[in-house]
């Protein structure tokens, strides 16, 4: 429960509304012990990067709060929509071809958000994949697209992402799965969280000098 409070404080209440009442997992796979707190694996800096990815992904997914309302980034028919809202339009029968240019931009935004994080955790990629498998099994998401996204050879995550995200409905589910997985991963790494908290304290002290 403590980690959920920390996430609410860091990310903002509105940014994780859809997952606010979901109990976070603690991964049981022994791989977590080979990652937690280990430099260049899941250390304090990786926790920081994951929090940044979650925050930015939530902004494009659900929008940013303006005048007590969530407003998306993507213009369509003289209004601005979030990825979640555009997925609802698709379900209502909006012609997907009309949304194709917006989808292309939205996918580019995600690649930009995650590019640095993916590069930094490349050494841990195979180990993280085993945790994703546990996540999908325990969360009852056997067909989650996050598995397709990470089961890549070399550095072609962006290309695979573009291929598997074919519309806003798949994008909507993908972002839900990815952000929840990252929260579960953070929850499962107490050593890395401690490193992150110590790092933020040092940053605050430095700024106060």
Report the mean per-residue pLDDT as an integer. Answer: 87
From the alpha-carbon coordinates, what is the Rg to the nearest angstrom? 17 Å
Order of helices and strands: HHEEEEHHHHHHH
Structural class assignment:
mainly alpha
Number of helices: 9
The tally of beta strands, per DSSP, is 4
Overall spatial form: globular
Low-confidence stretches: 8-16
Proportion in β-strands: 5-15%
What is the rounded distance between the termini?
33 Å
Q: What share of the residues lie within helices?
A: 55-70%
**Largest sheet descriptor:** 2 strands, antiparallel
Quaternary: single chain
Characterization of the model:
By secondary structure, the protein is mainly alpha-helical. The protein has a domain at 29-61 and 99-199. 62% of the residues lie in helices and 6% in strands. It is built from 9 helices and 4 strands. Strands 1-2 form a two-stranded antiparallel ribbon. It has a two-stranded antiparallel ribbon with strand order 3-4. It is globular.
Quick structural overview:
The protein is mainly α and 209 residues long.
Key features of this structure:
4 strands; 209 residues; two-stranded antiparallel ribbon; two-stranded antiparallel sheet; 9 helices; mainly alpha
Topology:
Layout: H1 2-11, H2 44-62, E1 64-66, E2 69-71, E3 74-76, E4 79-81, H3 83-91, H4 96-120, H5 125-138, H6 145-150, H7 157-164, H8 168-187, H9 190-208
Antiparallel strand pairs: 1-2, 3-4
């Amino acid at each position: 429960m403590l980690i959920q409070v920390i996430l609410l404080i860091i990310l903002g209440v509105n940014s994780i509304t859809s997952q606010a009442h979901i109990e976070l997992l603690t991964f049981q796979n022994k791989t977590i012990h080979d990652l937690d707190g280990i430099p260049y694996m899941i250390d304090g800096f990786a926790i920081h990067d994951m929090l940044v990815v979650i925050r930015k992904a939530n902004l494009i997914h659900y929008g940013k709060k303006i005048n007590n309302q969530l407003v998306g980034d993507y213009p369509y028919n003289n209004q601005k929509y979030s990825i979640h809202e555009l997925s609802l339009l698709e379900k209502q029968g909006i012609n997907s071809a009309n949304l194709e240019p917006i989808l292309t931009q939205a996918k580019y935004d995600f690649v930009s958000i995650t590019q640095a994080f993916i590069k930094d955790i490349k050494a841990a990629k195979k180990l993280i994949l085993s945790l994703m498998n546990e996540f999908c099994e325990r969360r009852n998401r056997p067909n989650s697209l996050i598995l397709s996204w990470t089961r890549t050879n070399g550095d072609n995550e962006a290309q695979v992402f573009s291929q598997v995200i074919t519309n806003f409905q798949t994008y909507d589910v993908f972002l839900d799965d990815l952000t929840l997985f990252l929260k579960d991963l953070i929850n499962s790494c107490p050593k890395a969280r401690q490193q992150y908290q110590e790092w933020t304290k040092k940053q605050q002290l430095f700024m106060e000098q």
